[in-house]
Amino acid sequence: MQTGFSSSFPLRRARVHEVCGPGAFAFAAIAAASATGPVIWVREGWLADSVNPVAVARFFDPARLLLALGKDQTDSLAVTEEALKDGAAPFVVVEVTRPLDLREGRRLQLAAKAGRATGLCLIPEGMGSNAAETRWQAAPLFDPGARDSTLMRWESIKNKSGTLGAWHVRWNEETRHLHVVSPAGERPGSARAPG
Amino acid sequence: MWFPRLASDRVLRARPVEAPFALTLKDKNAERLYCLNREAEQAGLHRGMSFADARAYCPDLVSRPARPDLDARFLTALSRWARLYAPWVGVEGADGLVLDITGTPHLFGGEAAMLADMRARAARAGLELRLGLAGTRGAAWALAHYGEGIAAPGDEAEALSPLPVAALRLEPEVSTGLERVGLRRIGDLLATARAPLSRRFGPGLLMRLDQALGRAPEALSPLAEPPHYGLRLTLPEPIGLVADVMAATARLLAPLCERLKANGAGARRLQLTLRRVDQASRQVELRLAGPMREPARILPLFERGIAEVDAGYGIDQIRLEAVTVEPLAVQQIAIGAARQEPERLDDLITRIGTRIGLENIRRFLPADSHIPERAFTLAPAAFSRPEGAWLNPRPRPLSLFPPEPIAGRGNRPPDRFRWRRMMLTTGQATGPERIAPEWWLEDEGWRAGLRDYWKVETREGRRLWLFHTPENPGWFVQGEFA
Lengths: 195, 482
Description:
By secondary structure, chain A is α/β, with parallel strands linked by helices. In chain A, about 25% of the residues lie in helices and about 30% in strands.
């Protein structure tokens, strides 16, 4: 299964991916850390929670991060499409609050292809779009005995060109590297996080 | 050059009125006439009259509020026009220009021909113009304001003698004082002994007299000519298609960028004014994320704004101006290299900025504070540079949200708690980390006093940042770790 992970994790370039679940922020931060160059994070201005750059520094240099605050989802999708198409920022994160329709999903996919940039949509549970290249579910896991643990369970629940699977991963802050902890090919659900 | 009706001529140029017309300005709580046209003056009105009186004298008076700021801009524009005649042009008061025409009249066929040319052009532009030409600035002013004419150098005394003393640019009190003692004309002044005059009216009077006659020097301060980054294109036929407007913009953009380059500057904010056939004008503003002057980069950025403009019956004049300009040094271009990354990112920021506003693209800057939500600031990306070091000696949550209360008591995290409709069980808690409010900053959220922060790893997986306020007992969730 380890090979399976490396074939799907550094997210395929020039495509748009999706991630949901409580670990979506961490997933986005780790995916951004594996890319180079500026990262544009698109979100709607009214959202109450915010990305904390002090913690982002554990994953990548916050100087790479640009925040684009739109008025509503139409704005943020338009900004995302523009940013993907341009390709000046190879990694674009967008927070989605309502499901994308087929046209919107496809437009983002085409824009990513044109600009050779990777897009990542943070979606609410169950609001995936059919156009997404891969969809992930990320949830933190309880790691008894370890301090400052970043153990997470990442499950690939959709993959257009590859296999599905679930992995336990941990971020190593010193080496800035992602470790797959146990080839958790065994039954997912044993340590499944709620919600 | 004196424009006696500069303000009203400016307004009437845009919309002519065949009736008494006046501009009013509010002065000390009363509307007063500020400037009026010839018809209004013939109707017996004069400057400084109160507007109510003027309406009583002349019921069909057309009026409009005065805009002295626009008048001053108009005068500056006229000073650029006047550079046609002389290299040195200065502004004289609120409605005059002073030109040093030394060495230029022969280009126009003599002084008289030159003045005739000025008059003809001003009349064509709908401006009333009075001219005075003399060897000194004072004499020229006197001639322009009181009986136009040309005074040959050295003849100032004769030319000025019949003029009233007010032509010497005197304070009103001084000139009324002079008239009271019977000195009405400049000739009378010249015939009077100088010492008593200076004792009675102070040195200002004699200084003005000497300046007018060329006995005392008076310098002309030419307007510093700031580089002007505005271009205009008037079209013989109105246009309406986006592609046509873009082509016209491209034609304006190329020389503008040349000019910017010659001055080592780059545009930061550009304004495109499209004047429609029906005189309404539409503006497209482009704010750039960094100074730039490459037409090929700027032009595509205009596309979105131009596409939104309603062309109506067509556009027949286009004006492009670089409103804000920043210095931009010439850079060496590496041959064969692709466009540089920062430039591409700037272009992208500009393009996104035309949609959501340039100030809505932000970057994080570290701030020096222990308070978690103040440990960073958000600055507009176009007006800041990434700087500073991000230190996090202690683990901080990846997402922060406004504190959400949970049920709990005591100063240790509760074993079980409900948060966002989830029942969570504490598996492991790290803490406390005490953070005191910054007393020098008033903050609503920190009213409850000290906070003891705990990192709580729940058995369900979520790693939350909880805090307890010992001074006002209560438990809250403020963030979530990766």
